[in-house]
Design a protein that fits this description.
This protein has helices at 3-10, 17-24, 29-36, 38-58, 67-87, 95-111, 124-156, 168-207, 214-251. The protein is an all-alpha fold and 253 residues long. It has one domain. Helix 4 (38-58) packs across helix 5 and helix 6 (95-111) packs antiparallel against helix 9. 23% of the residues are buried.
């Protein structure tokens, strides 16, 4: 018995197209490829869906927009207002990055609710990759806006007062903040992955109960739809806060 089959017995999980194909071609190179890259396949599928939707929403822009263009403009305006409410007017510079993250994560969360599809965000490798991208961009922004010495000063913390003269407190704060910066990708990725994975497992478990569990499954599906939105908002909000910590420190100088 394969490890994948044992895992499917140990944990309830909805079947999806890729897993069914992998089972069909088990023992072949193609089957191994599907098992290895399952989450990446769905991540690329989401990118394709977003690209197609964006193309049709913007290909014929009009002063009196149609439904699709109106929905796209409403989404972009809402995300931009949300980011600027935290970062101020300068936040618009980061709207494309944070807004793309929000839309990408939201669609990945919801795609798992479609029969025979799977949420890529239920896989830690996907969420950790997103968190690493956020980490790298935030560090790049910090070094660009504050400079190496300014960023080091930021990590040492303020105010330091008389204790700064001892050098011990600034160094302690520097080490503490460095550890905190390194932990952020871990906490950011695990929070998203654990919630999406837990929701998927819950729905799969309820669905295994047959018709008797249908009312409970229906109610929980509605809740999962809400939680999927909340998780995308939380990931984007925390990313915005990370930028705010850098930009607010810059304004103090």
């Amino acid at each position: 018995m394969s490890q994948g089959h044992e895992a499917s017995i140990a944990q309830p999980e909805f079947p999806n197209i890729v897993s069914l194909l992998a089972e069909r071609y088990e023992g072949t190179a193609f089957g191994h490829f599907l098992v290895t890259w399952e989450s990446i396949i769905y991540s690329l599928l989401v990118i394709g869906l977003i690209t197609v939707a964006a193309y049709f929403a913007t290909r014929k822009r009009q002063l009196v927009p149609g439904r699709l263009q109106s929905a796209a403009e409403l989404l972009v305006t809402g995300v931009d207002d949300f980011i600027c409410s935290v970062l101020g007017p300068r936040g618009r510079k980061y709207t494309p990055f944070i807004g793309t993250l929000f839309i990408y994560i939201l669609v990945m969360n919801y795609i798992g609710l479609v029969p025979l599809l799977k949420s890529p965000t239920a896989d830690w490798s996907v969420t950790f990759g997103l968190a690493i991208i956020v980490f790298v961009y935030v560090q790049y922004t910090a070094l660009k806006e504050l400079g190496f010495l300014g960023y080091t000063d930021h990590l040492m913390g303020k105010p330091r007062g008389v204790l700064a003269l001892s050098i011990i407190m600034p160094i302690f704060m520097l080490v503490l903040h460095l550890v905190g910066e390194l932990i952020r990708p871990l906490s950011l990725s695990l929070r998203l992955r654990s919630n999406v994975w837990g929701d998927d497992m819950l729905l799969a478990l309820l669905a295994s109960g047959g018709l008797k569990g249908l009312p409970v499954l229906f109610v929980n599906t509605i809740l999962v739809c809400l939680f999927a939105l909340i998780q995308a908002v939380i990931f984007s909000l925390l990313t915005t806060v990370y930028f705010a910590l850098i930009l607010l420190h810059e304004e103090e100088h």
